[in-house]
Amino acid sequence: MDKQAKDGTPAAEAQQKVNKEVAATFKLLMIGDSGVGKSSILLRFTNDEFLPPEEAAPTIGVDFKVKYIEPDDKRYKLTIW
């Protein structure tokens, strides 16, 4: 049986995605008042997860995530702070 990545894709296909060269890296900074949902937006965009307000805790310090996107068959790295 073929091995699969966490997202269900075959392991060989997942490895190709990892090895694909990054065309550019973008650093994004989110700023705003406390309690407005910056961390929730970040979590939703990067992990496709959503925490209801009653489960979300305030972020102490700095949080960042990395997401790779592939529009037009080029791979871009987004570092979001």
TrEMBL record:
GO terms for molecular function: GTP binding; GTPase activity. InterPro entries: P-loop_NTPase, Rab, Small_GTPase. Keywords: GTP-binding, Nucleotide-binding. It holds the Pfam family Ras. It comes from the Eukaryota. PROSITE patterns: RAB. Gene3D superfamilies: P-loop containing nucleotide triphosphate hydrolases. This is Uncharacterized protein.
